[in-house]
Specification:
It is a single chain. This protein has 566 residues and is an all-alpha fold. Among the domains are: 31-186, Serine Threonine Protein Phosphatase 5, Tetratricopeptide repeat, CATH 1.25.40.10; 397-479, Tetratricopeptide repeat domain (Serine Threonine Protein Phosphatase 5, Tetratricopeptide repeat), CATH 1.25.40; 495-566, Serine Threonine Protein Phosphatase 5, Tetratricopeptide repeat. 73% of the residues lie in helices and 0% in strands. It has 31 helices and no strands. α10 packs antiparallel against α11 (208-224), α22 runs antiparallel to α23 and α27 runs parallel beside α29 (517-529). The chain starts with 14 loop residues before the first helix and ends with a helix.
Length: 566
């Protein structure tokens, strides 16, 4: 069996175009403790006396209490700011100082828990949250922080108990619902996750900013469930309730794009940019949609030029225009614009990458490599690194590509992506020993990495190593819906004589990937192994006649001829 089923990672060869990709509608519903603690200063605001509550002789005391509250809040936000800047040591010292002066202040224990979480000391973090809860049993920050720690540790029932306790205190705390939705999702109860988020939406109606965040979380769930029409319905309803609101329109445009209603999205985006003459992001998104129409070339370029004039200090519009010109095969103009971007934004690598893309479009690989190397020298990153390696391999300069990758690995020896790239590169060179070594390194760092498990199983299978089946099974247990992993596990089972066990796995893989010729061929082999020659022939006949080529097509033709000859 050839390594047709090796799992790889997709990457645009034109890097800059990838950098311009608009943000997706479906965002994770993860509770972010740092942002949440910054935006929700525990119960300290509740300590402030209400206006008119005290007066006369007590007005001085009221002022002192207010001053004390303001001081606590300032200290709190100062620590949050230090943590956001990753000034861990400074934050640690400040928290220690605060707790020494205020040992009974629960919010400072919340800060300590957050610091310990960032240090990945979850035991200490939970102890700090416990102290905060002991001092204030209704402290929502401490309850939600505890819930998140339990969720991350896989203690779902415990996480749910903490979150429900917080919900009983305040049923409008949006982060509580996001945590409960995450817990339900981890429990593989998508219906419950949807119910929780819809409840959250009903609780926050009237607060459009918060409602938008809930709808984004619902969008993630509906994307997983392949139900984009549901997010469109929610966004259309939001738009009706908040007509011409920029937040609602922006969400609606993205939902329309996800649902392939691009003409409607273009209209919505036009509304947005008419509302805000300085809106750059939506102009670029509209340009992206217009650029898909061959007859709207002039309109697209005009919109990009207009956007560039609005924000001359930002490169986005110029970069997209250059990428668009490359797509139109107007490479001399694209090169001229790339040179302009390089001069105008010398600290960025965008101009050099664009010049590389122009040369790549013109198949001038030497010049492409030169530009990417300059970009990589200024700002090393994996996308440029891997593109450089691919270009070198395309030029039959495999040793140079491998040296480049190994040099990068020396600086970050635990980098899984570089190990993976080296493994697949060695596989292409048929250096299976080196490939195995890098897959092993991946598994040392991440024992449940399904890509390494799958690909290493294939390598072992090729040399009849009995460890192949166990690795394939582990990959399958981690990703039972992946057609490539189903194919690997099922095919190894078939070839090792477990034909009845392997057949349903290959049938499922073929259903999930009906256009994958190699998987269909493996299924045909499984039918033969299970003494079902007619079904194998029925599957093979259209497969070998199709124009689509695949790695094992010759083997498929040979098998069909053999079966028909019987």
């Amino acid at each position: 069996m050839k390594n047709n089923n090796v799992i790889t990672k997709n990457r645009l060869s034109a890097i800059v175009i990838g950098l311009l990709a608009s943000s997706s509608l479906v965002l994770a519903a993860n509770y972010n403790a740092l942002d949440h603690q910054q935006n929700n200063f525990g119960n300290l605001d509740q300590l402030a006396p209400k206006a008119g509550e005290q007066g006369g002789l007590n007005s001085g005391l009221e002022s002192l209490r207010q001053a004390e509250l303001n001081n606590k809040k300032a200290n709190y936000l100062e620590v949050i700011d230090l943590l956001k800047q990753n000034k861990i040591d400074d934050a640690d010292k400040k928290i220690a100082e605060l707790l020494k002066k205020n040992p009974d202040e629960p919010e400072y224990y919340n800060l300590q828990a957050l610091l310990e979480t960032l240090k990945k000391d979850t035991v200490a973090a939970q102890q700090s949250y416990d102290k905060a809860i002991k001092l204030d049993p209704k402290n929502i920050l401490a309850l939600l922080g505890s819930s998140k720690l339990a969720l991350d540790a896989g203690q779902l029932d415990k996480a749910k108990d903490f979150a429900n306790t917080a919900l009983a205190i305040n049923d409008k705390a949006i982060n509580t619902y996001l945590l409960l939705a995450d817990i339900a999702y981890k429990q593989k109860d998508n219906a419950e996750a949807e119910k929780v988020l819809l409840t959250a939406q009903s609780k926050v109606k009237g607060d459009i900013k918060t409602e938008v965040e809930v709808i984004k979380s619902l969008g993630k769930l509906y994307s997983i469930q392949k139900q984009p029409e549901k997010i469109l319905s929610l966004c259309e309803d939001l738009d009706k309730r908040y007509p011409d609101n920029a937040l609602a329109l922006n969400l609606l445009a993205q939902a329309q794009i996800v649902n392939d209603k691009k003409p409607l999205a273009e209209q919505t985006l036009q509304k947005l940019i008419n509302q805000n003459k300085q809106d750059i992001d939506n102009r670029i998104l509209l340009a992206r949609l217009l650029s898909e129409h061959p007859d709207k070339e002039k309109e697209t370029l005009a919109l990009l030029d207009e956007t560039a004039l609005i924000a001359p200090d930002k490169p986005e519009a110029l970069v997209f225009k250059a990428a668009y010109l490359i797509k139109l095969k107007r490479t001399p103009e694209a090169l001229q614009l790339a040179e302009k971007i390089d001069k105008q934004f010398p600290k960025l690598i965008l101009g050099k990458l664009l010049k590389g893309d122009v040369y790549l479009a013109d198949k001038q690989l030497d010049k492409t490599i030169e530009q990417y190397q300059q970009a990589y020298k200024i700002q090393p990153n994996e996308r440029v690194l891997f593109t450089l390696a691919d270009l070198m391999i395309a030029q039959k300069k495999q040793p140079e590509a491998i040296k480049l990758l190994n040099d990068a690995l020396e600086k970050d020896k635990k980098n899984l992506n570089i190990h993976f790239k080296l493994a697949t590169t060695y596989q292409q060179q048929n250096d299976l020993k080196q490939a195995e070594a890098h897959y092993d390194a991946m598994l040392t760092e991440q024992s449940d990495n399904v890509i390494a498990l799958n690909n290493l199983a294939l390598l072992y299978f090729q040399k009849n190593d009995p460890r192949a089946l166990a690795l394939a099974k582990r990959a399958y247990e981690k990703a039972p819906e992946s057609p490539a992993i189903l194919d690997t596990y099922g095919y190894i089972l078939i070839k090792q004589g477990q034909v009845k066990e392997g057949l349903p796995l290959l049938e499922k893989a073929a259903t999930l990937a009906p256009k994958a010729g190699d998987i269909q061929f493996h299924l045909a082999e499984a039918y033969v192994a299970n003494n079902n020659t007619p079904k194998a022939i029925t599957l093979l006949e259209p497969l070998v006649k199709a124009e689509q080529d695949f790695a094992e097509k010759k083997a498929a033709v040979s098998l069909l001829d053999k079966l028909k000859a019987k």
